[in-house]
Specification:
Blueprint (H helix, E strand, L loop, with lengths): L3 H8 L9 H21 L1 E6 L4 H6 L2 E3 L1 H9 L6 E5 L2 H10 L4 E3 L8 H4 L3 H15 L3 E5 L4 H4 L4 E3 L4 H7 L4 E5 L2 H10 L4 E4 L5 H4 L3 H10 L4 E4 L5 H4 L4 E2 L2 H10 L4 E5 L2 H10 L4 E3 L13 H10 L8 H17 L16
Parallel strand pairs: 1-2, 1-3, 3-4, 5-6, 5-7, 7-8, 9-10, 9-11, 11-12
Length: 345
């Protein structure tokens, strides 16, 4: 049973004005219902670092898209995976664990960045570049649909993008869909010709350097942690450019006391809750898609076992090839079991 007082004590670290005792009393009832449904449905619940604070409370695992995919791949006893994130993440969970039912509690939870890369346009661009360049590798950020992953040579994350592109033998690399992450990779690998797809995450694109500089002027000892999806003029002001999981690890281990996590606001909520002895200032933006999933959505999803993620076999296989190549190039020891059976041809 969730205790409203204890819940308020934790969640008020993220937003003391919203998480009143009255609100937390209502949330505790919803959380109790979800806990009961998880047992009835033999389900595990995975939550991305950008979710609502109350969703963190009911999650079996919280992390970034790669970390959650690895957790999804290891699910053996549970029959159902409830993925509290956005659509492409739930698709990836289905790719790495096709035997499990994967639910996305709200199908409207898409991704504006993933939407900038559509498979027909990508196919045409690949054909054009291969005619002109011959030597070409296609690398997609994990923030893409399964259908787009199926057209690419390798997938990557914000944490391993540089390592993946460096390990590929080709000099010319089409990198999609995020132009800011492509720029970050190109800056680290001047020997490669990185061709950027012109997509971006609207959340990270809206964060400007003036905001960062203003906060740092007030808090000179502040450690600024920026996501590589941010603009270059923002990343240059940061002490470190890290994935969301990298930011969590950095903040937990660092002896510093004040941090600015320059990314979606859910991560600042998570850090404030999980690391209460440190201060986390904000220069973040809200992702409307990540915040679409509510506790009521989760309850309905577990009651009806819908909406379920389904992928055609050819898309699942193709996306699996792209993901398998990523692991082979970076961390083969972490490769999900389901990917070992995926052909690279």
């Amino acid at each position: 049973m969730f205790d409203p007082m204890a819940l308020r004590e934790r969640l008020r670290r993220a937003d003391p004005d919203y998480y009143t005792l009255e609100v937390c009393d209502r949330l505790a009832g919803q959380l109790d219902r979800i806990e009961s449904l998880k047992r009835e449905r033999n389900a595990v619940l995975l939550a991305h670092n950008y979710q609502r604070p109350e969703v963190f409370e009911i999650a079996d695992f919280t992390g970034d898209s790669l970390g959650l995919s690895l957790e999804a791949a290891m699910v053996r006893e549970a029959e159902t995976i409830v993925f509290c994130g956005v659509h492409f993440m739930a698709e990836t969970a289905k790719v790495v664990n096709p035997q499990r039912r994967v639910l996305l509690p709200n199908l409207r939870a898409g991704c504006s960045l993933a939407d900038t890369a559509e498979e027909t346009r990508l196919y045409e661009r690949i054909e054009e570049l291969r005619r002109d360049l011959g030597d070409l590798a296609v690398v997609c950020y994990i923030n893409t649909t399964a259908a787009v992953k199926a057209l690419c040579d390798a997938c990557c994350t914000s944490a391993n993008a540089v390592a993946v592109v460096r390990a590929l033998p080709q000099q010319n690399v089409l990198f999609l869909p995020d132009r800011n992450l492509a720029r970050h990779v190109a800056n680290q690998l001047p020997e490669k010709n990185v061709i950027a797809w012109e997509g971006y995450c609207y959340v990270h694109q809206e964060i400007d350097p003036e905001t960062i500089a203003g906060i740092r002027q007030t808090y000179p000892d502040l450690k600024v942690l920026a996501h590589p999806e941010c603009r270059d003029d923002v990343v240059r002001l940061a002490d470190a450019a890290l994935s969301t999981s990298g930011m969590v690890e950095y903040a937990r281990k660092s002896p510093d006391r004040q941090f600015l996590a320059v990314t979606e606001c859910g991560l600042s909520d998570l850090l404030a809750i999980e690391v209460p002895d440190k201060q986390f200032l904000r220069a973040c933006r809200i992702c409307r898609f990540m915040k679409m999933i509510t506790l009521d959505d989760i309850i309905r999803s577990l009651e009806c076992l819908q909406p379920e993620i389904a992928l055609p076999a050819y898309v699942r296989e193709g996306a699996g090839r792209s993901l398998r190549r990523m692991f082979e190039l970076t961390t083969p020891d972490r490769m999900p079991e389901a990917l070992y059976g995926v052909s690279l041809n």
